[in-house]
# Entry
Amino acid sequence: MENKGREIYKENFAEYLLCLALDVGEGMLKNGAEVSRVEDAIERICRAYGAAHVEVFSIISVINASVRMPDGTYSAQMRRVRQSGIDLNMLEKLNTLSREVCATTPALEDFDGKLHVIRSAVSYRWWVTLLSMITICSGFTFFFGGTWRDAAVAGVIGAVISIFEIFPSKYINSLLKTGISALFIAVLAGLSIRLGLGENGSIIIIGSIMPLVPGLAFGTAMRDLLLGDLASGSLKALQSILQALMIAFAYMIAAAIVGGGVI
Amino acid sequence: MEFFTYELLIRLIASFFCSIAFAVLFKSATRHLIPAGLSGVVTYFVYHLGLYFEFPLFAVAFLSTFAGASFAELYARMRKTPVTVILSAAIIPTVPGGDIYYTMQNVLLGNGNLAIKYLWQTMSIALGIAGGIVVVAIIFKIISDTIAKKKTSKT
# Structure
């Protein structure tokens, strides 16, 4: 990720080019781009710099690429991609950068500099995330027919689970995060009914689990499958099904804690 | 069943703000937030139309995703951004959160028939969303490929 250790790549043009192209690809893949777009971007960048032969293969957690220049120099690199939170703004900037680089082919050092600027940019502040989480939970509570009191409870629940969004942890993967968040939601909703704060337990839960439901993930998984990316499509589909099961599992534990009749 | 109800108004407003909030959660740029909200409104409006004309649930989900995803693709082509930027917000009002919940609840309460009914609804909506995204993606890919071909053949 950091620019340390780049020096070893700089001596060989092919190595350096492929390293930068993979940086772009890794950033796009991490932040929610489709696999085909990532493969396409890496190939285009390498071709723009005059590569004679480029091969790229990517699934959601790894990118493999090799490039051969016309003078015979050769590079093959592999990049392990670890999923963290999606940042569509960074994806967009990387996409623009890859278009720009393909059109103008600047010196690799300039390319590197621009890439570094994009990657070190910060997006929204923590309280904006908090506010959006509260909006989602309360908004969907209204959407599914909840009352003002239900929406208020859902807003508090949203504030609690936004902690997991604001402080991303390396040790908790996304499945576990979903499970813990769902558990918190169901337990808090159940307690609110017990204490007489909320009116409709199920509507509060439905509204609050909306940020966790893998709707888009399942949709893009199907798109990847039907457009021919079998490997990443089936991995994504499995991921979203497991996520839905995780929510169900957490709900069952919560029902055991607060009593199934309440929620 | 009346078409313009108080409930519809509430749901359209909720779709607008929730889609924006999802766009913020996925860290979209600020200039895409209002279009993201509008895409949610488009999706829910078509969803409501489908329910009004009593289409099967799969068709309702398919049509509303089709509308939302077309909006997202058109916007993405106009502004030259990846489709995901709007698409992630556009399908939010269709996501079957309620049905997933009722499936789990009925499994827990031991109501097998009801659980299967809600599971069936969840699956129809999920497949409808997936179908909508795929069909729109294919249509726009064909269109952009033909435009690209015309451009290269001219020069």
In short: Residues 6-154 of chain B form one domain.
